Amino acid sequence: MKTLAAALAALALSVAAPALAADPSSLTLTFDTGASTGAVMVALYDSEAAWTGGAPVRSARIDVAAGQRTAIFNDLPAGDYGMKAFHDVNGDGTMNTNPFGMPVEPYAFSNNAVGNMGPARWGQARVTVSGAVTQSIVIR
User: Fold this and answer.
1) What would the DSSP string read from start to end of 63-132?
2) Residue 112 pLDDT more than 70?
3) Do 119 and 49 contact (CB within 8 A), yes or no?
4) Four-residue CA torsion sign, 51, 7, 18, 91
5) Is the pLDDT of residue 40 over 70?
6) Region for 64 from its dihedrals, namely left if φ exceeds 0, alpha if ψ lies in -120 to 50, beta otherwise
7) How far apart are alpha carbons 78 and 129 in whole angstroms?
8) d(CA 41, CA 80)
9) Distance CA 83, CA 116 (A)
């Protein structure tokens, strides 16, 4: 239990204070949504291990109802990243699913990768970030 608490404390510090790199990079994600309500919830991962079950290195909430469509992650160390997002259309703060566990709210991944019976794989969604990188994501 102490190990889990220490890991969570380290994660909180790393998310609160972004790592400084010699050449900071950025990732700008612009979302094309099918609805103009709720918010897009975005999670950014920096490794395959984190992608498949770890914590995101950064996260963002985009207020679609207020007209926002873009998430910008500044001061990223150059490297590989993957993004998972869902459009919380009803604004309840969770990704709603049907009784079988299938999402009923729109979702998307970086590179507009598509999953097969689950989330897209790291190799499909991985984006190499070095300098300023921009992606347009369709979330429907």
Assistant:
1) EGGGT--EEEEEEEPSEEEEEEEEEETT-SSS--B-TTS-B-S-EEEGGG---SSSSPPHHHH-EEESSE
2) yes
3) no
4) positive
5) yes
6) alpha
7) 5
8) 20
9) 17
pTM: 0.82
Write the single-letter amino acid at 74. Answer: N
Q: Residue 81 is encoded by which pair of tokens?
A: 């990243």
If you count them, how many residues does the chain have? 140
Closest CA to 91 of 43, 35, 37, 32: 37
If you search the block for the tokens 């873009």, which residue do you land on? 70
Residues 53 and 40: their CA atoms lie apart, in Å, by 21
Q: What's 53's DSSP letter?
A: T
Q: For residue 42, give the nearest of 130, 133, 121, 139 by alpha carbon.
A: 139
pLDDT digits (tens, 9 = 90+) for 114-127: 998 889 999 999 99
* Both structure tokens of 20: 């400084």
d(CA 20, CA 24) in angstroms, rounded, equals: 7
Q: Which two tokens stand for residue 97?
A: 């699913």
Q: For residue 67, what are its two tokens?
A: 């007209």
Q: Residue written as tokens 């900071």? A: 24
**CB atoms near residue 65 (< 10 Å):** 13
